[in-house]
Amino acid sequence: MFTATATITAEVEIITRKALVLVSLSVLLLTLLAASTFAATNLTLDAKGRFGCLACHGDQRLVKVKGKEKIDLSINESKYGDSVHKDVGCIECHTDFTFRSHFNVAGSYKKTAGLSCIRCHTKEHQKQYKDYINSVHGRLALSNDPKGGATCGDCHNGTNIHYINKTEESKNEFQFAAEKVCGKCHKKWFTTYDDYYHGVAYKQKAADSPACWDCHGSHKITSKEDHRSAVNKQNLGKTCGVCHPGSEVAFGEQYGKAIHGKAKMYDTNIVRALITKALVYKDNVTTGGSKAYKATTDLIAKVIDFFFPYSLRPEKEAPK
User: Fold this and answer.
1) Contact 140, 100 (CB under 8 A)
2) Are 140 and 149 in contact (CB under 8 A)?
């Protein structure tokens, strides 16, 4: 009886050991298969760190929630692949990136990346960089001022940047991008850029119409109170003279007010106010009344139509 029990116990132990060996081999085989599958997906960081970042940031749904604000953290891989930086790795611009601090960044990552351009563009853009660090944008960006300041990347769009002067198409694309380049921060000024000869023409993409930087300057832009500013009073003749040869300060002062101040000038213009009232009156003339009354109103309407084209008329006011 004792011998039989011992024999059974020994056989059980042998079976158990064999089972453990089989399980171990199975786990090892599955691990090897999983490893080969994982390697085939190419999810690891490449030499420049690009593919690893896009594994998450390539998802167009990736956002960071900050209070009520949703911050888009995605990168359009297609646009990035068509840009001049397609072969530049993420960490070559995001020089302050570390994985440990990745989820606790204070928002300075965009500023760091936006100012890292000079690391590569030392020779060909040295002048632009010197102008920029002394500009109103550069001084703010390089300081700890909470207002920030536009960096190279903010205006040139680091992840989707194209050659500006390589082809006529690229020149035009950037020339008419002022709403995105300047207007995203200076919304009020882009909205009021609506005088007939400059703003309206620009928004209709007239070939000879000026973008913001054609008047205000670009890399060395300063406050208009600064004597170096292109729109400082003493420099208006020179600035306007680029397109209007022979311009003097008086010309710039007189017409310059209308470039961003058309609405205000209209509101205070007595003649325009009278014409606006006349238009409302014309539109509300009834068919009743004497023949003399109708002839008079018809004459007023014809005079208004002749001297005041529809394309230049103010918006109609509601009758009071």
Assistant:
1) no
2) yes
Measured distance CA(127)–CA(40) in Å, rounded:
47
| Residue ranges covered by each domain of the chain | 48-162, 165-267, 269-312
42: left (phi over 0), alpha (psi -120 to 50) or beta: left
- Burial of residue 1 (CB within 10 Å: 0-12, 13-18, 19+) is exposed
Q: How far apart are CA 293 and CA 288, in angstroms?
A: 9
HSE-up (13 A, CA, CB side) for residue 129 = 13
What is the spatial distance between Cα 262 and Cα 193, in angstroms, rounded to a whole number? 8
Q: What angle do CA 258, 264, 266 make, to 5 degrees?
A: 80
291-310 as b/e, with b when 16 or more CB fall inside 10 Å? eeeeeebeeebeeeeeebee
Tell me the pLDDT tens digit for each residue of 6-27. Answer: 555 656 566 666 666 666 666 6
Each residue of 75-130: pLDDT tens digit?
A: 888 888 878 888 888 888 888 776 655 554 445 777 788 888 888 887 778 889 89
CB atoms within 10 A of CB 226: 14
CB 13 within 8 A of CB 4: no
pTM, to two decimals:
0.62
Residue 64 φ/ψ, nearest 5 degrees: -115, 130
Neighbouring CB atoms inside 10 A of 83's CB total 18
- Is residue 151 a contact partner of residue 141, using CB atoms and an 8 Å limit? yes
CA distance 157 to 150: 11
